[in-house]
Structures are given as structure tokens and as C-alpha cells.
Please model this.
Amino acid sequence: MTASELKKCCIYLESDKLTERNRYCTKLNSALEIQESINILNSGKASWERLIKSLQKCIKKDAGKTFVDDSKKMSGSSDIPANYLSIELFVKVVTKAIKEGNNS
Model:
């Protein structure tokens, strides 16, 4: 993934559309498995800080959507909603950012 693609992910993580946020959470999750993407973030061409801030906004939007959805239907479903992708990704990004910071 290129620096511009990583920056694009940050923009779409802040989208008002859940489907766009989920699509880019998935793309970013895959990109973080590739060392080239990590190198781009470490080089400053795209920043860990920007990525984390975008994910924080994404989580806030996902939490708001979850609250609205839950208030509309009170069900005993044990399925993990798709909008929890952002939380899992946030944990992954922060963990990798800390690891990379310790390696420099």
C-alpha cells in the first residue's frame, strides 16, 4: 500500500457511511500485515498519529451507530456486529505503533 493509499484509508475511516468505514478498516487491516506499509508509516510519509486519530473518529461513529441500532431493537444476539471492526483495528494499529516506536 502506498502513502497516498494509507492517507485515503484515513479519510474513509472518518466517513459517515458504515460500509465505507468497514471497507477501509478491512483494507487497512490487510495493509498492516505488509512490512512496506509499516515502513511508510515509520518514514513519516503517512503517520501513525493520523491513523490513530482517524480510527478514534471511526470508533466514535461506530459506537454511535451501535447505540442507535441497539435502542431500535433489543435482542439477545451474540453476534459481533461488523462495526466492531474499527475497535479491533485500533488495537492492532496502537500495538504495531508502540512496537515500531520501540524498534527505532
Summary: The first helix runs from residue 3 to 13. The helical segments are 3-13, 18-31, 35-43, 48-72, 85-103. The radius of gyration is 15 Å. Residues 3-68+82-103 form one domain.
